[in-house]
């Protein structure tokens, strides 16, 4: 059996979740792990049979046995670590974004390093591998609804994030809506050429202090002529609201929210159903496994990855345009020229 | 029993449908009917016991026994007939719009006549009385979802209209989206202050010849700070798609499409359900009855009507703004000052 | 236009509902109506243009202009009136049962009179014309689920009936389950050959005083080898519960309960839907219209009726068997030989 | 952390599935595994770090480090191995049944050995831990539907089993319906006192050759006065059909089938949904984990198990009664006296 020899960088909550998923895949051999606070989880890792541990990711990158690295560190380290990993000749899995800098030069520098090294890079746009959205995507591709004309995405978080966390990971547009821009572009198989966005603090006015918003409504124009509508909220009291609808010349596809219950309670007042799954950990659990599976398959079979570096640049451009649209009150064009040619 | 003494003007397809509904209400007495082609349906009307028939609506308006007129004539006659009815001192039910002229002066002249006459005027914004949307509306008003923050409306026709019909009744924005503007404003209980719209001919490019569009996506700003998203299409192959969603600080309300079937067929391929109701006649059948019922109640009990003249002006202003937004590519402010003060 | 010249006997609550439905059908001319308390509704009837009224149904039956009678009188009069109507040579619509006497000789005497007269008789098994069940029925007939193997019927009333009403119309088996026996037989297109029933008073023990039950569970054997399961309850706090499921070699068809609302309320506790329609008047409203329509068509086109006299006899035999099964604790055979040959 | 020191006996397909689940639980230490064909999976086990392997379960049972055994061997070995495990003083998890012998003395002998040894025994009635059914169960217990009056269970396999497999694991009643008898009794919290069953070969007549059936419909009487209805089929072309409904004085609870898709495809013909999950491996995946979790918790916290030996005896008695009912055509009483007192 062909195997990936993997190094994992970053073992916070997300990293550990991904590690558990990777451990179930027989064609991945975890060679070494790195975390700046490795001592906190050292014993646990030993119990899992992962004894080659380091605090220094450079040490891991210089390990010749490793051909692939999974980067689960905080967002502000991506630029540095992905670049170093590329230069070390490793295939790379990394969460978006590639850089906290909204000017895309930073991201493009990273991608140039990846290109120069000739390694594979998959971006963690996990929703592309969510079974619900994947089903919609495949049916759209298979022509089940004819020519796509309108995509609608509703994406609502269950609750506000702490301000300091937002400052570390990016605000609504760059951390949250980013996924929706990517999903919209992915579903329509076409680039976004224009964004008009309305956004504000309808839930927590103090978000203005950190230049963030909690509610968003926007319209997209796609290169192929189609339109998109996205609405976001930071607090949906009923849980994590993640829906996609694609309308086309021959029909419509809808992915509704996911619940873990099919139970219906009929009483003298109404019929009660259970709420949707509460958070991304539950909703996108299968997606997190599937994106890893897809990445491993891409490497072992030398096939294109599910989400590449360009995809994160394109989503970032849309986010920048949305930001500027909110600030100026005017629609903003989005550059669709392919960089790094 | 208090009774309305009614005259009906216009007995085309819509008029006959409304007439049948009115016939079932014991507190309406049909005194006289008028239609320019009255001879075509004279016998049928006689069979229903309606023998006082005329080709000339002026004759009907001068009938002193009549206190209320229902106007079901073609859109281009509304301005003239509503004005004449007001001057004749009759209460008036009329479909939107009040004038084919997009400059609102024409509509305001009509409303001034209504105001001067001191009569009641109800606009046929039938969707306000659709049981599904009404349920959402009442739950929003009752605070079931806290403060409304986002309203989303999807409204799709089952198929394209003939070009000549469009030229008589108005294009997508003024005939179709008009209802959505009204619904958005009604649900949010707040005026629309800004519209940004993208629209085009994704289905039938020849619509450009008559300056119309078939596909629309837009974002609204409301006076109370909330946002709205509307998408329209002229051809949904699966039927008449009419959905509303209101999201608020304490929850969400969705009105899904209506089907007349609860039957599920499970076979070796999938589960099949019946499509939504095919057209407005089926979907809004209860709404057409309910709006008449509401109008009659308003008159008999001297209560406010469900949709008044101002409402059609406000919806028209949004349509004008959307038109200009599509033409200019820029968001457009909507005047919310109350005219006729 | 061919027209039926109709007489209506019995104008209590059910009769008036049916009358309103009949009034909307242009190919029915209401010639005369009869009710023992005709004076109570005489004015109302006049207002509807029905002026030929009588207290004596014999007078109506002797009216030569009438070719068809609709009998909506109380159950205990069916035997007498149907017989008289047949002898008068009128086509007959009548609710089940044909006789309060559980010994079927009484019913067969009625049917013999109908047969001798050569008139049409349609039994008011309205559920056969319910759009949901009709859809299932037609899909079964069209082979959509292959060979039917199991039918399941759940039928629950919203609340207990007064004891004196039960004594007039028959207990659970003969008034309520009767419909389910007919539906089971209709769906399977096969006679019931055996019944095993468990029944008791789980809701109202005082029903024992009038020899009735409120809860029932039973298993059926059909002539074609298939099985059936029926469960009944007199009190479902969530409304009128009417479901049918047919399982076959190539799939399954389910008709779920009908609600008049598609609105979903998502809050921090759960998702709330509206309850099913509360009572038979709402649930079977379209069925009541459709069965009349079908009867009129049968007469005008000389086609078989939707539910004939034999059907009520067969359902009655199943009810008698169920009764005996509950009393003896043993399964009971049901005679399927066709009477009156 | 308290840990269970576990031995696993039987590593066929089911055993390996359970092993994978157990491996994810940190409070279970797999000390040793046994399988008569251990050489076939030895390498795979080594790769999982399980190196203490044996062909002889007696060796495992005599391992003093082991306190708990999980028995996943074929049904015909349960009687022998459970008895031996009990005599060795181990806590035991075992799938139903405890004996292939339909006379319950065999099962009772096993349970006597368990009782004498004072060890815990949990029966693999996995559906008790299915999240859907568990939700219904807990809501029933919490009084959400008042007094339960009727339980309905539909349980259909996706396809026929090979005859030789049936002969090894038991026919429909003893292998398949057994779960439904247990579920019915569990939901109603009351013993089954009578069974009337109709069963036959509506799908595969050659099943008669091995004295089995493929279709079943039955009615249950419970000790508390309630009723039950169960229907089974061996071949549902649309997948694994597993539904439970409990009706009570204050409402109804339904657990519908589980699908892994929320995607709806609307086209010009109908609306398409994905079929239910295809087989028990998918549908009951969370239940298999949850029953292990519950068993481990019961041992570590010395609490009652979720399904005990008595439960399998009671379900077996119902199966015996159903068998006899089908053979005799008569309802059969079920003894509810507690054995082994």
Automatic annotation (TrEMBL), chains A, B, C, D:
GO terms for molecular function: nucleotide binding; oxidoreductase activity. Pfam families: GFO_IDH_MocA, GFO_IDH_MocA_C3. Belongs to the Gfo/Idh/MocA family. It comes from the Bacteria. The keyword Oxidoreductase applies. Residues 5-125 form the Gfo/Idh/MocA-like oxidoreductase N-terminal domain. Gene3D superfamilies: Dihydrodipicolinate Reductase, domain 2, NAD(P)-binding Rossmann-like Domain. Residues 133-253 form the GFO/IDH/MocA-like oxidoreductase domain. Keywords: Oxidoreductase. This is Myo-inositol 2-dehydrogenase.
């Amino acid at each position: 059996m062909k195997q990936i020899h993997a190094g994992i960088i970053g073992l916070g909550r997300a990293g550990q979740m991904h590690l558990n998923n990777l451990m179930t895949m027989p064609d991945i051999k975890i060679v070494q792990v790195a975390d700046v606070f490795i001592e906190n989880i050292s014993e646990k890792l030993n119990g899992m049979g992962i004894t080659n541990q380091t605090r220094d990711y450079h040490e891991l990158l210089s390990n010749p046995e490793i051909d692939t690295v999974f980067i689960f560190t905080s967002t502000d380290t991506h630029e540095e670590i992905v670049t170093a990993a590329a230069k070390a000749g490793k295939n790379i899995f990394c969460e978006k974004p590639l850089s906290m800098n909204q000017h895309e030069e930073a991201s493009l520098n990273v991608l140039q390093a990846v290109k120069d090294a000739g390694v594979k890079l998959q971006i963690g746009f996990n929703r592309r591998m969510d079974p619900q959205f994947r089903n919609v995507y495949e049916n759209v591709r298979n022509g089940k609804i004819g020519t796509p004309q309108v995509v609608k995405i509703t994406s609502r978080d269950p609750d506000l994030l702490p301000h300091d966390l937002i400052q570390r990971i990016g605000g609504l547009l760059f951390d949250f809506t980013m996924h929706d821009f990517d999903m919209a572009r992915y579903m329509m198989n076409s680039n976004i050429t224009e964004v008009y966005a309305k956004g504000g603090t309808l839930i927590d006015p103090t978000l203005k202090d950190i230049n963030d918003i909690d509610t968003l409504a926007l319209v997209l124009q796609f290169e192929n002529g189609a339109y998109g509508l996205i609405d976001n909220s930071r607090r949906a009291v009923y849980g994590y609201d993640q829906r996609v609808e694609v309308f086309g010349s021959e029909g419509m596809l809808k992915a509704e929210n996911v619940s873990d219950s099919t139970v219906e309670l009929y009483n003298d007042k109404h019929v009660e159903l259970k709420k949707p799954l509460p958070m991304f950990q539950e909703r996108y659990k299968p997606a997190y496994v599937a994106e890893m599976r897809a990445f491993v398959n891409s490497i072992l079979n030398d096939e294109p990855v599910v989400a590449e570096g360009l995809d994160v640049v394109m989503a970032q451009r849309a986010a920048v345009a949305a930001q500027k649209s909110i600030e100026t009150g005017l629609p903003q064009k989005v550059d669709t020229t392919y960089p790094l040619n």
